[in-house]
Predict the structure.
Amino acid sequence: MGHPERFQLKYVAVGNEDCDNTKPFYQGHYLKFYNAIREAYPDIQIISNCDGSSEPLDHPADLYDFHIYNSADDLFLKKDTFSRTSRTGPKVFVSEYAVHVDGDTSKGSLQASLAEAAFLIGLEVNSDIVHMASYAPLFVNDNDRKLALTGFCVFFRTSILIMTVSVIMSEYNEQMDPRCDSLQLLATVWNS
């Protein structure tokens, strides 16, 4: 039963949304975990839960976690976030990004996917420090949505999947070869 071989873990994140003033013990606990993990598994990359995009972290980490949920307008404006980030120190793991508007329970929009695409282009332009990214939340049962927010990429029911425009955009983005010499970035103006 189970998986007979060890999983080849490359990364471990310590905490989730814990690095703010409301959780004063995270830093001390993080350092204990960091030291224990580093000693036992020196090759595993350790991800801090603290955002280092605007100022350097004050503790050791291989990567730091970055979450962003905004309106389409705000996410589009955040496309240059990592252009202003220090090139020294930990790399970035954008572990949660999506257009999210409170109270809007629609199934995505073209505007949302365009803003997410612009944000992803910003991540690719800064791939020297942005190590990886993932959309979140990804799945939701359309018949049992406890969270009233947008940003879900795939809605499912018992027998069907409902893909949003964001799925199509992210699939296209994954298929693009960054070395493709036919790719041209054009200046854009965002009008909402």
In short: The two ends are 53 Å apart (CA to CA). The beta strands are 11-13, 45-48, 63-70, 91-99, 130-135, 139-141, 154-156, 161-163. The longest strand covers residues 91-99.
